[in-house]
Write a structure and sequence with these properties.
The protein contains one helix and no strands. The chain has one helix at about 5-25. The longest helix is centred in the middle third of the chain and has 20 residues, at about 5-25. It is rod-shaped. About 0% of the residues are buried.
């Protein structure tokens, strides 16, 4: 689909990104 191979994977990737970003900002 237009959003990628699997929307759930896209949501998971977004969650991982947010967690990594918040972790980087916290340090």
């Amino acid at each position: 689909g237009p959003l990628g191979p699997h929307p759930a994977l896209a949501r998971l990737a977004a969650l991982r990104y947010v967690e990594a970003l918040s972790s980087a900002l916290a340090q």
